[in-house]
Specification:
Chain lengths: ~230, ~230
DNA sequence: AAAACTCCTTACGATTTCTTGACCGCCTGC
DNA sequence: GCAGGCGGTCAAGAAATCGTAAGGAGTTTT
């Protein structure tokens, strides 16, 4: 397993240095962003395990950064801020942040809170087999069956189907699908989805022209129907 | 859906009173334990959604209570403590607590952190479903049902309905609706609302001519009735 | 080296959704 | 009565989104 990656979004060089020194040691890989735009970009491309976010950024507001990340990812966000107004804390937490630490804080506490965040993001054990109609997905073995017979899917096709199945019945947004399968940096390439959904339908639908399983929610995303 | 249940484990009557007063209102059901043994018992029997735990208990140490709960449950634990030593925080967080608030704290912040905890634990349990008459809105799945059958809505229609549902029973002004769905720049285009409210009524009202659910407040805005 | 496979890209027609304007009815104030 | 504001309805054209087929690039298999 590769090292746990932390993304630090803070405009002050001194803070970044301090955090790097405290965290860089053996356990974490630390990457840095000096402003909000860079932070959003790195959050998408590097897929960090935890994000440490300062509120007082030069370009975008920290709250907006948190919201931007939450649009497609549930990576834990710990806000580090000098602002100790209750209003700021509530806003940040409701915007999607998972924790809020007021500067100055102890490194030990920060580490403990990072451990909490990592504990949370550990995925719960999943169902080994998914079923919907005559469709069967064996997540462990990466095998898909339709009406009992195995259907070969390419890695991207399987990834797409797996995400839809994990949220079966729900609409999954374009952004979310792209982030999960291609990575956060591809969240605008929604034409990929059209191509691959088409291929999935050809392999899995009785009548690919009239999809019953893999339905489109125009302008929003796609859905794997359960019944 | 039953109310969200909070378990307060604290030996000081004053604190319990204060928390009950702050939390009891409409949104939460609050149950109390005055010591650790009672707390563990209630955590098991009542299955609360969130546990608020004081560290300075008369019988068992708060840390041990947290560990005891973690042996069989992953219910979120928020520690409320007068101790502000970093050592205490680290111990509590590593013992399984999900958050640590130092007394005195603001009620608003506590509520925000409870919301964070609920957000985390909401991975499997029931979805937040809004109901009014035979109308059902499943926000997580992005699905609207009327009388049990699914109704397809376009993004704008869904957005409009969602805003009204979020303020169910209250009047939502034209400006507010337009700002939420179309963006702040469209706050004068109240004609859009007439068109889309018409479409929503067609899809959701028994008699679109005589709306019972989606009512007009002349000169002000619209309202989704709750009954 | 050829064949097979997967991924990405492009183009274009089909479909869905959004916007806009015309028209109607109702109520109110003049 | 009647003008004017407000809200509702309808439909057509514009715009955005979607589905599909096909081909090239890169990689792996045979």
């Amino acid at each position: 397993m590769s090292k746990t990656t932390l993304l630090v979004i803070d405009d002050e060089l001194a803070i970044r240095r301090f955090l790097r020194a405290s965290l860089d040691e053996d356990q974490f890989k630390v990457i840095e962003a000096a402003d909000g735009r860079e932070g959003l970009r790195l959050a998408a491309t590097e897929k960090p395990d935890v994000i440490l976010l300062d509120l007082g950024l030069p370009d975008v507001d920290g709250i907006s950064v948190a919201k931007g990340i939450r649009e497609w990812s549930s990576t834990p966000i710990i806000v580090l801020s000098a602002r100790e107004q209750e209003r700021d804390k509530i806003n940040a937490l409701d915007a999607g942040a998972d924790d809020y630490l007021t500067k100055p804080f102890g490194v030990g506490e920060l580490l403990a809170r990072i451990r909490v965040a990592l504990r949370h993001s550990k995925k719960s054990p999943e169902e080994p087999v998914f079923r919907a109609g005559d469709l069967e997905i064996d997540f462990a073995a990466h095998i898909v069956r339709k009406g009992g017979v195995e259907v070969h899917l390419t890695p991207n096709e399987y990834g797409l189907l797996a995400v839809l199945a994990r949220h079966a019945g729900k609409v999954v947004t374009h952004k979310h699908l792209l982030a999960e399968v291609w990575g956060g940096a591809y969240s605008e390439e929604s034409h990929y989805l059209r191509v691959y959904m088409g291929q999935l339908r050809h392999k899995l639908e009785d009548d690919p022209t009239r999809p019953k399983l893999l339905t489109t929610e125009a302008g929003v995303g796609y859905r794997l129907k359960t019944e």
